[in-house]
Design brief:
- It is a single chain.
- The protein has 458 residues and is mainly α.
- It has a single domain (7-417), classed as Up-down Bundle (Growth Hormone, Chain: A), CATH 1.20.1250.
- It contains 17 helices and no strands.
- The protein has helices at 7-29, 32-38, 43-71, 73-93, 97-114, 117-130, 137-167, 171-178, 188-207, 218-238, 240-271, 274-297, 299-306, 309-329, 336-365, 373-397, 402-417.
- It is globular, with a radius of gyration of 21 Å.
- The two termini are 35 Å apart.
- 56% of the residues are buried.
Length: 458
């Protein structure tokens, strides 16, 4: 180590890590389900694959967050990249159900490992260079915008690359024949993503410098993880602002579950065919990521105009809830005017969530010490995933129409209302002095009344 990185360098490296990590996952959004179908998988099997992903991510979310706080951010991020590299290779080339299920489970493990370390590294680096009072929101906003841009670009590329190969001069047939059916046109975005994962791992290992952590035996490391996890869970009970951030993440998960589960069917019904509906959904997903990125970019301005980060979260989540209400109001109509209103509502959902995220995480990082930062982010991500899964189960039994959309809007509006009451005391910065090993501390006492990522988990 030659000294701490300056803020600009740390910010740029954090943005590059966000792009390199999320671009491969964006490449899978459009072709993945179609690839499973092409491999002969029935819908129950496909649902099982996604369940394997979600359950693996949920089970490992907190332990892997604790692992990052114990052994370091760089090692855990590199491990996440290697897991995603293996997963994308299996998904791109696998032809049997157990291989595809294993690939989805490994991708879930990589998702859990990646939840928090990059952002925790950025905040740690900025605090080391400029102290606990350093500005965080701009860097967090740029990282969130970069994530949205990478997902948008990946979605477009992942949707168009198989189409170009399939409709080119026998390119898809030649590719499949040359690889004995292992590589299909729909496989190419996943294999391209695997190549990007190699670049991600190399960049993480060479660019993310961090202070060496005390050497410890494997037994000590494993013993420290549960203590860190327990501390992360207790943090939400001790600190009202952290509790609001976690609950807001759950509300965002509910909204995302509604929009991601309901939009594909609505797009297919609008176009009259599942294939054209998939293309429309890919275009909408890309537009949603762009809106999320714009919202994240404008998060610092939103906080200034609103008067505080807390008010900015309330306004942003309220705007997102209004987008779901617009989608609910247009379910019964297929006219051009209703379509325009629905598209506006769709973009507003993502714009609001994107604008809320940096302010929420800025609040979180000022309440949590470095020793528990990744764990706190994992708790936030876990709330988003579990609430989203529960909302998805409820939506699956609700009748079609506005009611499922209204459920997501109601939960998100409740998340916005949490921020009406302000804390009794301003939040002091989280301490940067080295705390006791594996401890998670809060920098302020609980206030009178009682969070999103992105994670949003696409």
């Amino acid at each position: 180590m030659t000294g701490p990185l300056d803020i600009r360098t740390a910010r740029n490296r954090y943005v590059r890590v966000c792009v390199l990590f999320w671009l491969p996952l964006g490449l899978t959004i459009a072709p993945l389900i179609l690839l499973f179908t092409e491999r002969g998988m029935a819908m129950p099997a496909i649902a099982g694959f996604f369940a394997a992903h979600s359950l693996t991510a949920a089970v490992l979310e907190l332990p892997t967050g604790g692992l990052s706080d114990v052994v370091g951010r760089r090692a855990v991020l590199a491990a996440a990249g290697l897991l995603n590299l293996t997963a994308l290779t299996l998904l791109g080339l696998g032809t049997s159900g157990w291989l595809l299920g294993l690939g989805m489970a490994l991708m879930g493990a990589g998702r859990a490992l990646s939840s928090g370390p990059a952002e925790a590294w950025y905040v740690d680096t900025v605090h080391t260079h400029s102290g606990p009072g350093a500005e965080l929101r701009i860097g967090l906003a740029r990282g969130s915008s970069a994530t949205s841009a990478a997902l948008a670009a990946g979605t477009l590329l992942g949707g168009t690359l198989p189409w170009l190969l399939a409709f080119g001069p026998d390119l898809g047939a030649r590719l499949s024949e040359a690889t004995s059916g292992l590589v299909l046109p729909l496989s190419t975005p996943l294999l391209l993503g695997a190549a990007v994962e190699i670049a991600f791992v190399l960049y993480v290992l060479t660019a993310l410098r961090e202070s060496p952590r005390p050497r410890a035996a494997l037994r000590q490391v494993l013993r420290g993880i549960p203590l860190t996890v327990v501390g992360g869970l207790r943090l939400g009970g001790r600190d009202a602002l952290v509790r609001r951030v976690i609950l807001s993440a759950g509300a965002a998960g509910s909204a995302l579950a509604a929009i991601e589960l309901l939009t594909p069917g609505r797009a297919a019904a609008l176009t009259g065919a599942s294939e054209s509906g998939a293309v429309l959904f890919a275009a909408l997903a890309c537009a949603g990521f762009v809106c999320s990125g714009i919202g994240s970019h404008l998060a610092p301005l939103t906080a200034r105009l609103a008067g505080s980060g807390e008010r900015a979260v309330m306004v942003s989540l309220g705007a997102s809830a209004s987008g779901l209400l617009l989608l609910a109001a247009t379910t019964a109509s297929t006219g051009v005017g209703s379509m325009v209103v629905a598209v506006i509502g769709y973009g507003l959902v993502y714009f609001g969530l994107g604008a809320a995220g940096p302010s929420e995480n800025d609040i979180l990082h000022r309440r949590v010490a470095s020793s528990g930062r990744a764990t706190a982010l994992s708790v936030q991500s876990l709330a988003l995933q579990l609430t989203g899964a529960l909302t998805g189960l409820i939506i699956s039994v609700l009748p079609s129409g506005p009611l499922p959309w209204l459920l997501g809007a109601a939960v998100l509006l409740a998340g916005a209302l949490l921020w009406i009451h302000r804390s009794a005391q301003p939040s002091p910065p989280a301490p940067t002095a080295t705390p006791q090993p594996h401890a998670v501390t809060s920098s302020a006492s609980t206030a009178a009344s009682d969070p999103h990522q992105q994670h949003v988990d696409q």
